[in-house]
Amino acid sequence: MPRAPASFAAFAAAIGLLLLPAAASAQVPPYADPPNPALKKGSMIPDPSRAALVVIDPQNDFMDPKGKAWPVVGEAVTQQRLIPHLHQLFAAAKAAGMVVAISPHHYYRWDHQWRVQGPLEIFQHDIGVFDRKGPYTLEGFEGSGADFLAEFKPYILDGKTIIASPHKLYGQQVNDLSFQLRKQRIDQVIVVGMLSNMCVESHVRQFLEEGFEVGVVRDAIAAPKLPEGDGNLSALINFRYMANGLWTTDEVVKMLKK
């Protein structure tokens, strides 16, 4: 077997990139951290007095087995144990007195007339994900795909949770989420929800650009697995580069209890 060029070998060794044998790598969980990371982990420590739990798209079309997008996201939602993990995080945040904010996704009839669309937009509009009759009516909303998952409603509809205006593509650039958080003197956010590599990642990037300290709960996010790639793995790779904190649900719950 030909040897790798010396320059490449030196580079790989310098940043700790070790190629595992195929048999060994097959035993590594799909979302496990690299055994020899090149980057230091972020040092974010959530402070409930200035931190918010931001939950993206906790809606039926993504999280209910009857939802329109379940055929492409259900495997990841189940594998990640997303629903029970979100339960834990909602409860822990409420117990800690933290601000909790929802960034929902809603589409109205005029949104289906967009002339400029990307692949995921086309998919969502084709199947009618998050459709509502309009912004000023609740006709047909209760229990629809755009509605919140029923088991999360006690947390979301408690009169304390911020429900931001809807985002349209992936990030909060066109809704009032950041504005609402700034009005609460929030400068730390813990981001969870869906889709990992689309809405979650876009929210994370925008929050970082706005100067927030941003953490992600790695087992409280989920994304489709398609021939184009595993969206959860794609996002996780980028979060290892960018996030100020990257934790499991259990780790966050312990931190908030302290």
From TrEMBL:
Q: Name one Pfam family in it.
A: Isochorismatase
The cross-references to Gene3D superfamilies, in alphabetical order and at most eight, read:
Isochorismatase-like
Q: Which residues form the Isochorismatase-like domain?
A: 51-228
Q: Does the keyword Hydrolase apply?
A: yes
Question: Per its UniProt entry, which superkingdom is the organism in?
Answer: Bacteria
Alphabetized UniProt keyword annotations: Hydrolase, Signal
Where would one find the signal peptide in this protein? 1-26
Q: Give the CDD domains listed for this entry.
A: cysteine_hydrolases (cd00431)
Tell me the SUPFAM superfamilies matching this sequence: Isochorismatase-like hydrolases (SSF52499)
> Which GO terms label this protein's molecular function in UniProt?
hydrolase activity
* Protein name stated in the entry: Isochorismatase-like domain-containing protein
Per the UniProt record, the lineage of the source organism begins with: Bacteria, Pseudomonadati, Pseudomonadota, Alphaproteobacteria, Sphingomonadales
